[in-house]
Amino acid sequence: MSIANLNMPVTQILFIMSLLGILSGIFSCSDRKSGFKPGVLTPRGYYVYAGKAYFYGGFSNASLIELTEADATEFEVFDQRFPGNEYAAEYAGDNKAVYFAGRLINGADSKTFVILDYGLGKDSNSVFYRHSVLSDDPANFVKIEGGFYKDSRHVYRGSYIVSDDPVNLKYLGQHGYIEYFSDSKGIIANDIRIDSVDVNSFVPLAHGYSKDKSQVFVIREARLEKVTNADAGSFQVVSKYFTKDSSNVFWRGTEMQEASPQTFKIISEEFHCSCDDRQIYFRNKKIPGADPGKIRAGKRLKYCNENEIVFED
C-alpha cells in the first residue's frame, strides 16, 4: 500500500515510520559479529545461527549470549529430547555440554543428563541445581512427598539441605503454605528446622503456627520464632493475625497487654483491630480512650490506628 493510498497526513505517516525505526533499533538486540538480530517479537530461548549457538533473554531481559562452548552442529533444545517436559525448554546442549537458562552447567554430561524439575537435573555422576552440583549420589536421588528430594545421605528443598537423616524422615503433611516433616532430630517446616521441639507431641496449626506439649512456634518472614508466654495446652489460632490461650491474646505472636481471652473479639482483621470488654486494640497496643462499650452494632469500620478507631456514619 502506498503513502498516497493511506487516509492520513504525510507528516503523520513520516512520524510513525520514524518511530518504528527508533523502536526497531531499541528492540533489535544484535551480535554485530554474527549478524544475528533478534527483534521485538523474538521469544526467549535458544537459537542456532550462522554456525553458532545463542541464548536470547527475551523482551523483558533482552540480552543475547553466544554459547561459545557449544558445538552448533550438535546443538539442540531439550524439549526435543524430553517432549512434554514443562521445563525442558530451559535446557539445551550438544553431544557433551548442558546449558540451563543460557549458562553452562559445569561438569554435566549431556549423554546421560535428565531433567527432574525446574533448575534440577542429573547425569550419571552428579545432581545439579541450576548450574552447581547439589549431590554426588544421583543413583539414589528421588522425589518424595511435599516436593522435596532425597538421596542416601540428605534431604533437599530446592538448593537447601534440610535433613541429614533421610532414613527416619516422615511426612507430616501440608498446612497452608508449609510442608512439615520430622526426622530423628526434630521437625522440618519447608526449609526451616525446629530442633528444640518434642517431636512426639508436635502439632502443625494454621497460618504458620505450630506447638508441642510445652512450646508454641510461628514461622514469620521465613524465620522461626517462639511465641513467648504462650500456654501450649490451651493455645489456639483465632485468625491469620490473632491467637490466644487461656490467659493471653497475641497479635502476630506478640502478647497484647492485658487483653482478656474470654471476651476477646476481632473487629477487623484487615485493619488489625480488636477488643475485649474493657479495651480496643490496634495490633498489639491499646488505643487510648477507646471504649468498646460505644461500638454500635452494624456500623462499618472506616479505619483504625494507634490513636483512634472510626466508624462510618
Automatic annotation (TrEMBL):
It comes from the Bacteria. The chain crosses the membrane at residues 6-27. InterPro entries: DKNYY. Keywords: Membrane, Transmembrane, Transmembrane helix. This is DKNYY family protein. It comes from Dyadobacter linearis.
